[in-house]
Design a protein that fits this description.
The protein has 2 domains: 224 residues, no CATH class; 96 residues. It is α+β, with helices and mostly antiparallel strands. It has a 6-stranded antiparallel sheet with strand order 1-2-3-4-5-6. The chain contains 10 helices and 6 strands; from the N terminus they run ααααββββββαααααα. The radius of gyration is 26 Å and the shape is elongated. Helix content is 60%, strand content 17%. The longest helix has 41 residues.
Length: 360
């Protein structure tokens, strides 16, 4: 039985490898062509190629579930076309045993996806965004309108971020318990300093405006400063996660930043949603593999290889459309992010189990 397992695993793993090469190759070409269209001035072809190579691991990570689906279907399809699956079933090999043999290379895909998504892709993505901005002669801005943060009763806005510990265009609004503005601080830059393990921000070239409570704007007092200490729970490591979109972050950064939002009474749904997508990706991969095996032993038993691949692609596209739809609905209507992510996965599992039960 070990030899049979090894034979099925080898066939499926080879098919997954070929599928990944094809999908990743097409993705690389399209991404490169798209990025070359952005070249201008200081940002040349070499910079565009380097940026594409930096973000490419994240693209591979996103392709892995589809690779497992199509690769499993193609690998088993080759065995089915040669009547080898019929021989195995005639010899007493149960379908569930074949499912387990196919799941073993899928586990390798899951492990590779975890390593890429948690340790490799986010760091390279961040470095790529930084290098891209520097090559264009730009500051690293989180958006065209800057970014807002909150720390208890203090609201802060900054125009651009340097993740090495520099903020540009800082505005700090402090409110009292009655939600009245009491202090407004504007500074050109804020530099992060660290002494004896303790970190703080140093505001430079700014002004501070005090608004006495209940007296309105007329009695405000303005004072300029060269430097001023700003003690806030906001580290450069935390600011790094603002430079890239939630879907491109690691699970640890997503969970940490979503938790910060919750502690401040803000909506962290986009970060929790991306966190659960990444956390559920191994189960997503397993569900798609089960569907692929069920197709081979069920409705696609006598179909051509082209039909099998086309069906797998259509099912994969339907799965991602359903997941994206539910994700958007969960953000708009404030539904549970875990529920929005898990429903499509449960749909795949149930579909695969029903088809396998009929084929068994």
């Amino acid at each position: 039985m070990t030899r049979i397992d090894r034979y099925i695993m080898t066939q499926v793993l080879q098919s997954m490898g070929v599928v990944l090469l094809v999908l990743a190759g097409l993705d690389l070409v399209f991404t490169l062509v798209d990025e070359l269209g952005e070249t201008e001035g200081q940002y040349g072809m070499a910079d565009a190629v380097r940026y594409v190579l930096y973000v490419f691991p994240r693209h591979i990570y996103e392709l892995l579930p589809m690779t497992a689906l199509i690769g499993s279907l193609v690998g088993l399809g080759i065995l089915a076309a040669a009547n080898e699956l019929v021989v195995l079933q005639t010899a007493g090999v149960r379908v569930i045993r074949i499912v387990w043999s196919v799941m073993k290379p899928a586990i390798l895909i899951m492990v590779a996806g975890f390593l890429l998504g948690e340790f490799i892709a986010p760091r390279l993505e961040l470095q790529g965004e930084l290098d891209r901005a520097l090559a264009r002669g730009e500051q690293v801005a989180v958006s065209r309108y800057g970014h807002w943060q909150r720390d208890d009763e203090e609201f802060m806005h900054f125009n651009a971020i340097d993740p090495d510990g520099l903020l540009h265009g800082v505005s700090i609004y402090r409110f009292n318990d009655e939600r009245e503005l009491v202090t407004l601080i504007n500074a050109e830059i804020a530099v992060f300093k660290s002494e004896q393990g303790q970190g703080y921000w140093l505001l430079q070239q700014g002004s501070q405006t005090e608004f006495p409570a209940g007296r309105g704007m007329t009695d405000s007092r303005v004072s300029d400063f060269e430097e001023q200490v700003w003690d806030v729970d906001l580290s450069p490591d935390l600011l790094k996660v603002l430079i890239i979109d939630p879907d491109k972050m690691s699970m640890s950064d997503l969970y940490r930043y979503a938790g910060r939002f919750e502690n401040q009474g803000l909506d962290g749904s986009p970060y929790f949603l991306s966190f659960w997508k990444k956390a559920m990706q191994p189960l997503t991969t397993a569900a798609l593999v089960i569907v692929a095996v069920a197709f081979i032993f069920g409705p696609l038993r006598s179909a051509t290889m082209g039909s099998k691949v086309f069906t797998a692609i259509c099912f994969g596209i339907f799965f991602y459309l359903l997941q994206n739809l539910l994700s958007t609905v969960s953000l708009v209507y404030q539904l549970n992010p875990l529920l929005a992510v898990s429903l499509p996965v449960m749909f795949c599992l149930v579909t695969g189990m029903i088809l396998l039960r009929r084929a068994a």
